[in-house]
Amino acid sequence: DTAVSQTPKYLVTQMGNDKSIKCEQNLGHDTMYWYKQDSKKFLKIMFSYNNKELIINETVPNRFSPKSPDKAHLNLHINSLELGDSAVYFCASSPESRGPNEKLFFGSGTQLSVL
Amino acid sequence: DAKTTQPNSMESNEEEPVHLPCNHSTISGTDYIHWYRQLPSQGPEYVIHGLTSNVNNRMASLAIAEDRKSSTLILHRATLRDAAVYYCILRSGTSYGKLTFGQGTILTVHP
């Protein structure tokens, strides 16, 4: 069973559209994250939720809205898609939200292409 | 988070040991050193972490300098499957899962 799963794996869409990416983890973790990897391969955190509560929001445009219906799911909705949103989006989870021993478990990513 | 510096790329031959260096001269006393790797078309994967002492697990070993200003990830016998980007990251107790990824080291393994 995949520990952190994201759907879809690939998403191709037109500028201006609204799209969602779903993430589920079956590890029983309390904390989930969204990271973005741009074309230069830099990985940067976007959001973090702990037990369904937002704890990190890293200067992401408000077109991006995370939703956590329960602690096993963290979905990412993007409004009015722009060309610059093209990237690979990774979902991750961890047993707790802070602490230097924390290990993150990542999904395999969603490649978003905005045309 | 304190900054880390890694070589852009390294090469190795299969079944040989690989030593991946990381400099972190501004590390604070409570920062842990974490290593992740990202295989092609995959998400990052945790490899190992430590504070002061050398650490071993089934994937790798981590050697930490006595002054903690540098560390080395050691893959004892590289395989083709170890070809990946390796990231050295410092984690404090207050960073709320905010892993700050640098550019990492691209490891190429030759058969």
* Average pLDDT of chain B: 92
Low-pLDDT stretches of chain B are: none
Largest interface: A-B, 29 and 26 residues
Q: What is the tally of helical segments of chain B?
A: 0
Main sheet of chain A, how many strands, which sense, barrel?
7 strands, mixed
The separation of the N and C termini of chain B measures: 37 Å
Major β-sheet strand ordering of chain B: 1-9-8-3-4
Query: Element order, helices and strands of chain A?
Result: EEEEEEEEEEE
Percent helix of chain B, as a range, is: under 10%
Oligomer: heterodimer
Structural class of chain B: mainly beta
C-alpha Rg of chain A (nearest Å): 13 Å
Characterization of the model:
The complex is a heterodimer of chains A (about 120) and B (about 110). Chain A is an all-beta fold and about 120 residues long. Chain A is about 0% helix and about 55% strand. In chain A, the strands form 2 sheets. In chain A, strands 2, 4, 5, 6, 9, 10 and 11 form a 7-stranded mixed sheet that branches. The mean pLDDT of chain A is about 90. By secondary structure, chain B is mainly β. Chain B has no helices and 9 strands. Chain B has a 5-stranded mixed sheet, with no helix packed on it. Chain B is globular, with a radius of gyration of 13 Å. The interface between A and B is medium-sized, with 29 and 26 residues.
Condensed summary:
With 115 residues, chain A is an all-beta fold. Chain A has no helices and eleven strands.
From the structure above, extract its key features.
heterodimer; A: mainly beta; seven-stranded mixed beta sheet; four-stranded antiparallel beta sheet; 55% strand; globular; B: 111 residues; mainly beta; five-stranded mixed beta sheet; 0% helix
